[in-house]
Amino acid sequence: MFRKISFLMVGIVVGGFGVSILSESGFFSGTPAEAASRSTYRQLHLFGDVFERIRSDYVEEPEEEKLIESAINGMLAGLDPHSSYLSPKTFRDMQVQTRGEFGGLGIEVTLDEKTGYVKVVTPIADTPADQAGVQAGDLISHLDGKAVRGKTLSEAVEEMRGKVKVPLELTIVREGKKDPVKITVVRDVIKIRSVRGRVEDDVAYIRITQFNEQTFDGVKAEIEKQSEKIGDKLKGYVLDLRNNPGGLLDQSIAVSDVFLDKGEIVSTRGRHAEETQKFSARSGDLTKGKPIVVIINGGSASASEIVSGALQDHRRATVIGSRSFGKGSVQTIIPLGTNGAVRLTTARYYTPSGRSIQAKGVLPDINVEQPLPDELKSEDVTRSEASLPRHLQNGEEEEEEKGSSAYFPRDPKDDKQLAYALDLLRGKQKHAMFPPDPASGVPN
Predict the structure, then answer these.
(1) Sign of CA dihedral 402, 369, 418, 294
(2) In terms of CB atoms within 10 Å, which of 162, 173, 182, 210 comes out highest?
């Protein structure tokens, strides 16, 4: 069995977004559970009796597999909001999400409710679909001659994915074209870009949208590319973790390590003392000590809280924005052969100073609120772990139940939090927390 660590959930690549974070780390090493008591076995007999009565006497013949799956879901749903059963398909989707790559065409799609066709949101640059001439707004009516109408988006996406080098014919209804257009696209390895960056004049801007297997390499590449472009006038880095729901634990550790030269990054503590693990930085700061401003908000969870918490505790970065989500628990993914997997909460994690952010979140050093546009002012855009039913209690300190806004504008010119970060790095904005004093950080 292998372990994965999950915090929130991230969405999917082709069509829509959810939220998730996962970390593979060898074999399951938890302490074996103690033998169940005699009364527990009596309860299991009770479960068997109820199952048999439903199977034999229910008004309609039930699907036994669904009954069992529902029972498992019910058992896990009674624990905490992040423990759950993953069906084989959900498990496969999750693995694709965490690998950050799959065999496919390279398009982001959604379902067009008016026509029932699959609508291309955008072809991803330099992918087979892009090179074959697929355009944003195209409506895909057939895949290899088979009608798309009547399929769910997931079913259509499943058909578009497949083995590398295998062609797929798309029949496309395109605006302005009288007849359908047929395009053959040869599948290739599609990598989910979790890191994007740009030069902001004299500042390097890096945004991480999730932590998958490509994230560390993506961050390293952006640092090298942008530092070379900006050259000697580089003032520092903005690390944008807003609305980042998490990802792989090992990637959050590797990304933290990029900016740290030494010291603990995170520790995890399970039910048994011997399961405690600590992860530390290795020598070498890839940014060569340049100032860093991290931006977080109510949508920053799990792995992004590990990164922001570690850089904040070591006073390596100034964290601005609003309180993060507050998911401080660790989930282990336990495969069940061909029957999917169980995602089980097995530990809590702690920042280098020993604080748990469970149901509290990371508090920014400088609170900078992003104003809401008029159309969202009547909606609740706050997010927090503490608002979830059955969430784990922090156990050490008073919980913070109020979340913070998970909104930030797509257009950088309306982005107040980003503007503040840039002004800090350029010296146009002064604050006692910038630059941070490493001497006041946790001892290394």
Answers:
(1) negative
(2) 210
How far, in Å, are 5, 189, 271, 310, 335 from residue 249 at the CA level? 6, 24, 19, 13, 18
To 10 degrees, the CA torsion angle through 124, 241, 203, 256?
Answer: -110
State the burial class of residue 286 (Cβ atoms within 10 Å of its Cβ: 0-12, 13-18, 19+): middle
Q: How far is CA 419 from the centre of its chain?
A: 25
- The yes-or-no answer on residue 37 being catalytic is no
Both structure tokens of 259: 């900016």
Distance between CA atoms of residues 344 and 361, nearest Å: 21
Asked if residue 435 has a cis previous peptide bond (ω within 30° of 0), the answer is yes
Report the alpha-carbon distance of residue 119 to residue 172 in Å, rounded: 9
Query: Of 4, 119, 191, 327, which is the active-site residue?
Result: 327
Q: How far apart are CA 198 and CA 217, in angstroms?
A: 16
pTM of the predicted model, to two decimals?
Answer: 0.82
- Asked if 440 is an active-site residue, the reply is no
Tell me how far apart the alpha carbons of residues 318 and 111 are, in angstroms, rounded to a whole number. 41
Which positions of the chain have pLDDT values less than 50? 1-32
| Residue 341, strand partner residues | 86, 335
Active-site option among 300, 302, 304, 405: 302
CA nearest 269: which of 30, 27, 9, 28? 30
Q: How far is CA 348 from CA 163, 297, 307, 427, in A?
A: 38, 21, 15, 38
Active site residue 313: yes
Catalytic residue among 93, 240, 257, 313: 313
CB atoms within 10 A of CB 189: 13
* pLDDT tens digits, 242-298: 999 998 999 999 999 999 999 999 999 999 988 899 999 999 999 999 999 999 999
